[in-house]
Amino acid sequence: MIYRVTHNTGYKYSLPASLSQNELFLFPRNTPSQEVIESRLIIDPQPQYLHSRTDYFGNTAHVFMVQHPHDALAISVTSLVKTSKPVVPAPCNTMPWEKVVQRLISPAGPLDLDAQQFVFSSPLVSYDSDFVNYVRPSFSSDTPVLVGAADLVQRIFREFAYDKLASNVETTVKQVLSNRKGVCQDFALVAISCLRSLGLAARYVSGYLETFPPPGKPKLVGSDASHAWISVYIPDFGWVDLDPTNNLIANETYITVAWGRDYGDVSPVKGVVMGGGLHVLSVMVDVSAQKEQ
Predict the structure, then answer these.
(1) Checking DSSP bridges between strand 2-24 and strand 70-83, what pairing results, if any?
(2) pTM over cut 0.85
(3) Domain limits at 21?
């Protein structure tokens, strides 16, 4: 599949802002099942400083500063990406989860060693007895790790309600677990907290998902959104992406932008502004399939 992804972010200020500085994680990355054909970034007003870098996890980040008075800021990224169906092992043939934990305690090679960093707590992921108690029904003795992870994802999908008003940037993952409500970012953090509480390696993935309108209805331009899911480490294979919001193993309709320990590592847009008074934020995302030549 070839997709064109457009992600527009806009800020309007009630008073002129004298300076704004932002970091962006909006360029998709190459993976074994994804090839980035092109990505373009447009910022208005034109920044006085713009720098791109590859972060610790291999994601593309952009940092920019607008250093003169402005009453609006527009950030637009357009990407063309080719995806294919990821190779996924048969869940029942994956290693028992207890042996995975032991491999991560005593890494057998560089892949295990790299995955080890995704076992620990991070600023937005904490684990305690509440997460252990929730995850254990999915991981009985000798359960293949991908069978257990898929069952956990299915339970979150079934037992949690998608509610845009149920959480905000200050909502903790423990509160989401208790309230059983949230959005895709929340569900991903709950799943990661559960898996890490057992000693398994799980990372946070940000990106996009092709969506489809109801039967007989046209797809509205800009009706898509950023999405988030998880990736679990399978020794002797690699990483497998799972989506708790939709109860799916990620397929060719998923477009990966970045991954890290949690949302804080790969927030699409984050920054600071001096002045500006009150502001209004607008976000428009469009994911459209393209005809292959």
Answers:
(1) antiparallel
(2) yes
(3) 2-84+267-290
Structure-derived torsion over alpha carbons of residues 152, 158, 159, 162, reported in degrees to the nearest 10:
110
As a dihedral over the C-alpha atoms of residue 192, residue 194, residue 199, residue 201, rounded to 10 degrees, the angle is -20
The verdict on 261 and 282 lying in the same domain is no
Same domain, 225 and 261: yes
Which amino acid makes up residue 210? E
Contacts of 135 (CB under 8 A, 6+ apart): 152, 194, 195, 197, 198
| Terminal Cα distance for the chain, rounded | 11
| Chain segment 264-286, per-residue pLDDT in tens | 999 999 999 999 899 999 999 99
State whether 147 and 279 are in the same domain. Answer: no
* Average pLDDT value for the chain: 95
**CATH, residue 194:** 3.10.620.30
Tell me how far apart the alpha carbons of residues 187 and 167 are, in angstroms, rounded to a whole number: 11
What angle do helix axes 184-197 and 145-159 make, rounded to 10 degrees?
140
